[in-house]
Amino acid sequence: IRFGDQILQINETSLAGFSSDKVHDLLKKAGNNNIALAVRDRPFERTLTLHKDSTGHIGFLFKEGKITSIAVNTSAARNGLLIDHNLLEVNGQNVVGVKDKDIS
Fold this sequence. Notes:
Structural class: alpha+beta
Shape: elongated
Helix content: 10-25%
Low-confidence stretches: none
Number of strands: 7
Distance between the termini: 27 Å
Number of helices: 2
Strand content: 15-25%
Radius of gyration: 18 Å
Strand order of the largest sheet: 2-1-3
Order of helices and strands: EEHEEEHEE
């Protein structure tokens, strides 16, 4: 299992609609051996390398970790960044759940 993978089932129990607390309870109650997981590999994830322009910007805005807008003729636009997608890592650091002001 890697960061970003989705666990779909634990021991043939579908996790659709389960809270993370309920999933943790299922894992805790499972035996020590032979836990069967159904996993979907990282959904639509891409790695992009963006470059700052002369003003130090890379060309996109985000709110709560989600990309909200992309400036025209910027590194973000040229490299195919998409709105309504989430930031997962910045410079190799996981930023899921990190406050916007702490992402640099």
